[in-house]
Amino acid sequence: MLNKAVRLGIMMVLVVIFCFNVAAVKADREDSKTNLVPIIDGTMSYGDVYGIPWNGSYDPGTWDTSKLYPLNFVTDAKTYGELKAEYESKLGYPIVMLARVYEIAYVSIGAGISWSPLGRVSPSYYIMPDPSDPLVGWQVSVAIFKAPVKGQENLRLTLFGYVNDDGKSCVLWSLDGSHPVNVDSKCGGGSELVCTVKLVEKKLKYNCDGGYDWLGEQIVNDPKWLEWAHKFASMNGNK
To answer: CA 128, 132, 136, 139 torsion: positive or negative?
Structure first.
């Protein structure tokens, strides 16, 4: 009799505890992110910023981590759209944001009519969240990539063509597009910039002042600069 009463008491306690949990249907991979209670203010966002455009794969094993760094902060965002706007504000450029989603373990309550989430379990995977999707859990993890800008040139190398007082030409280079310094000491006195040649993707393109197209043609057909163009295009995965 006592054992029966004890068992009944334990069962009642378990039922009371489970009743405080939010009932949820058993989730599958496609909609598991929508089956949790939305977060409250002050949730921690863990962002992995890759610093490069997304390669289109959802497999983290294929992502280039050479420029990876963390950007973590407490957010009051309620949706993934709001969180994305926060990251773009902090980074200063448009992004592609992927959300890390965990499988959720559930336990049946009572006769198994309802379910209660126990918590995250492995494995995890990434999805492209809709901006209106609510953030869920006490913390969120996202992967951040640079968004491609339509029509933007992917500049890899810049060559500057000068003509000095003696009429001789000289070519200097830059990886970030900034103009060279101490030009006179390198190219001769009175050196004037007359041509700018850019390596865009895999092709050298020149823009020269009137009457100096000959120098632009000379630069883009010079075996030395063609070799450099091939080198830098190859280094950036565009061989």
So the answer is: positive
Segment 1-56, tens digit of pLDDT: 434 443 434 344 333 333 433 333 333 333 433 333 333 457 899 999 998 888 88
Among the listed residues 96, 100, 136, the one whose alpha carbon sits nearest the alpha carbon of residue 117: 136
Where helices occur in the chain by DSSP H, the ranges are 2-19, 80-91, 183-187, 213-220, 223-235
Interacting residues of 68 by C-beta distance below 8 A, sequence separation 6+: 48, 49, 50, 51
Domain ranges of the chain: 2-146, 155-235
Query: How large is the angle between the packed helices 223-235 and 213-220, nearest 10 degrees?
Result: 60
Amino acid at 139: Q
**C-alpha angle 95-92-207 in degrees, rounded to nearest 5:** 90
Q: Are strands 139-146 and 95-109 parallel, antiparallel or unpaired?
A: antiparallel
pTM over 0.90: no
